[in-house]
What does this fold into?
Amino acid sequence: MKKLLVVATLLIFSTHLLFAQKDLGELSGNISSYFQYLRTDSTIGATQPPEKALINSFANINYRIRGFKAGVRVESYLPRIQGYPDRFDGTGLGYRYVGYSNDFVDVTLGNFYDQFGSGMLFRAWESNTLGYDNMMDGIRLAVHPYKGITIKGVYGNQRFAFQNGKVIKSDGITRGVDLDVNFKTIFPKLEKSKFSLSMGGSFVSKFQKADDPVLNLPQNVGAYGGRMRFGYSGFFIDGEYVIKENDPSSDNKYIYNKGKGVLLNMGYSMKGLGILFSAKSVDNMSFRSDRTKDLQDLYINYLPSLTKTHTYNLVATLYPYTTQPLGEVSFQGDVIYTIPKGSKLGGKYGTNIAVNFSTAYQPVHHTSGINQNDSSRVTYRAVPFDKSNLKFWQDFNIEITRKFNKTFKAKLCYYNIQLNNNIVEVSSTAHGIINSHIVVADLLFRINDKHSIRTELQGLFTKQDRGGWTTFVIEYTISPGWYISVMDQYNYGNPIKSDRTNYLYGSVGYIRGSSRISVSYGRQRAGLFCVGGICRYVPASNGLTISFTQSF
It folds into this structure.
């Protein structure tokens, strides 16, 4: 396969360079590198690796010409930075593809990423900040038989590891097909109307040899579902329902229950007002191409997280929540309102108020009428949105943003986060619900057109876990390229006085066009780093960090 892709890529390049001198195509991509030099710091539990220095590097190169496309990604871990999975090492080709696309067909041979619907059945994606990559290696075909209609098919193996500079793939095979129909595009009379309607459906299956000497395991497991979205003017509602056939695995302790998932969203928007409500119910929806894996390995699907993506230090890093694929009933609501400018409350420029609430509970598993000794290994019944009283997570937050004049802008925030440490363990000492209150003041002062100062004052208050925290950030910006910032995170409320540690961290950076370089030094606390409900553990560190990115 690799030799075939290399030959095909060379043919595309050479043919068009020889015969299309006036149109040499389009070359694009990016290069990034992340370097760490670490030292031991016994106060925070940071250790120096044997190599002392760590580095992750990536180079993506894509080429297109007259419908043809080809690309590669070179990856290098010499060795990997802290917190990355231990199956990343070496330098080599981590991603490569060739393909062709026009108005009717889009075909890719080699590596690809894609998603069906919300991703509850299939999502192949990567995040180099998380160390997550479940790309497909095989073939992807999408056809557009009529405007507004798209049929997609995928077939291949998932990426599992990158060792000694080579991609290691899953033993299991993943294949699927998806249909999406947009009626507003199909019918010209609807194009200018306020009405919109789209529908879709997906089927995904996996194959893995059954080699268990005791259990009768299915080699093929199928999953299927449908979705619909309706909109009129500023209102919309969409939903997706999926079912996964019996899929015994190490996640569910090899039971034969079916998996079910429901996702609902509805919202309304008009000038100055936006309202969104979401609900999700999933049970036994861990879907992997290898039934023996755990953590974040070889997920075929992705379960959207109904939580707000926080960016402030204390809110985002101390008590993050991870989606529970074996069972979760969750809800989220958002209201964004802008008090009109010129009013007494809105001021000269208007005032923005954003209120968000999200929560997640354990679903109810009904065992009445279920024979636990039955050889069918179906151990319970589950009804969508039937939740128990066991709370996993709750987040209520309100953010108020106001520009007072041309030189001063302020944002005041309050967050109440409740996290069940027995479900998502973030602390080795806390038990049950950790209830925290966080306040943030984000102040921006513009000195002149080129110089500005931004400060953050953050405080976290809790009677559980390690007590209260503060974070102070000051950032000085010189437009258009330079910035310098200092952050100090301090666990002032720790009941163990010797652990009341300052995590001081400084950065300086320069941006010019599509180039960006930053240099940082200081302490970083151990904890979970999360994006969209997917997390990785990052150990404590103290040292130098240099990052560089370049796009072209």
In short: The radius of gyration is 26 Å. The CA atoms of residues 79 and 541 lie 16 Å apart. The chain has a mean pLDDT of 92.
